[in-house]
Amino acid sequence: MAENNFDIIIIGAGPGGYVTAIRAAQLGFKTAIVEDRHLGGICLNWGCIPTKALLRSAEIFDYFKRAKEYGLSADNLKFDATAVVERSRGVASRLSAGVQHLLKKNKVTIIDGRGKLAGAGKVDVSKDGKAVASLTGKHIILATGARPRVFPGLEADGKLVWSYFEALVPKEMPKSMLVIGSGAIGIEFASFYNSMGVDVTVVEVMNQIMPVEDAEISKFARKQLEKHGLSIMTEAKVAKL
User: Fold this and answer.
1) Residue 45 CA, distance from chain mean position
2) Once rounded to an integer, what is the mean pLDDT over residues 82-99?
3) Which among 23, 66, 152, 157 is least surrounded, fewest beta carbons within 10 Å?
4) Of 202, 204, 154, whose CA–CA distance to 179 is shortest?
5) What does the alpha-carbon distance between residue 81 and residue 100 come to, in Å, rounded to a whole number?
6) Do 63 and 117 lie in a common domain?
7) pLDDT-derived band of residue 40, with 50, 70 and 90 as boundaries?
8) Average pLDDT score over residue span 209-235
9) Alpha carbons 129 and 76: distance in angstroms, whole number
């Protein structure tokens, strides 16, 4: 098990962590970053970026559906769910590799594993339950991000109840889907699956979808989504499954 000394140790390689690591290294600090999954964090690997890639595929699919409006023919239109997912994952992988390149270019030490505070200025790193490194640093920055909120009785099982992870990598399209919550993530998934032919219902506890947005924007978005076949229920709760 190696022991290394650094000026700055950062736990977590999401946007908060890797940008800090790069800047610290540029300022002359000996810097290490610890990450046990993918460089770039949730947004890049399992959030903002791959969802946009899925939505782009859905957008193109919708264009083909309207081909006749433009004097074009697109008969026997269908999609390949596996290929759509592979493209999305490929986009995320390329950008994650870009983050790795930037870290290496700026001479940041990348340590693959889960970091744990082990005392003042100390971080122990393990991978698959095995110790891989013991680090000491003058400064430690925690950039570990967050975890999905879990609702009692609606715990994700990967089958009937999905988390964002399963929703990003479907092996096949379900016939119907209930999306609980109409924030940005919920609406993105609802829009994608609706475009792919899934019967989608969105349930929102507040009196409008996209609750943090202005009422005018929310009303416009709801009108467009319902125009495309989404069913939306506001001021509603899921009592039980």
Assistant:
1) 6
2) 96
3) 152
4) 202
5) 29
6) yes
7) very high
8) 96
9) 51
